[in-house]
Amino acid sequence: MKRGAWAMLVAGLCCAVPAWAGDPPASTAPAAAPSRDAALAQRLGADERGMRRYVLVILKTGPKRVPDGEERKAMFAGHFANIERLAKAGKLALAGPFAEDPDGWRGLFLLAVDDLEEARRLTATDPVIERGEMVAEYHRWYGSAAAMAIPELHDKLAPKRP
């Protein structure tokens, strides 16, 4: 069930939505195909379909919960710093937590790499992985290159940190 729901969510990133709402336009002539922005496609690493390869990393509860307190705060500060580092390096398209989950799903990374070993290297230094708070599962994924624009857009939406 979880993988099916996740697949539906991710598929939504790739589906086209009509520009109109309600009744279709009066004209029955076919709409002009949108023009391809070759510069944007190149910047985002898109192939001829506007897609690219990624590695989806599912973070799950690990075997060693770090106790509440300063040590746990420092671990998560390092985790968020790692996320920021990967995003600035152009390796992380998307990251975020799952809602509380009885199966132990904690969060995800969408890494802009197509090699599982590179994905493992990029996440190996994350404090939550190093400490055993979380473990990672790695899955190859092929999706819209537009996901690469998420960090830039997020920076425009998120409050500035001191």
Automatic annotation (TrEMBL):
Which residues are in the YCII-related domain?
56-133
Taken from the record, one Pfam family name reads: YCII
Q: Which SUPFAM superfamilies match?
A: Dimeric alpha+beta barrel
Signal sequence, start to end: 1-21
What top-level branch of life does the organism fall under? Answer: Bacteria
Q: Which UniProt keywords apply?
A: Signal
Q: Which family does it belong to?
A: Belongs to the YciI family.
Q: What is this protein called?
A: YciI family protein
Lineage summary: Bacteria, Pseudomonadati, Pseudomonadota, Gammaproteobacteria, Lysobacterales
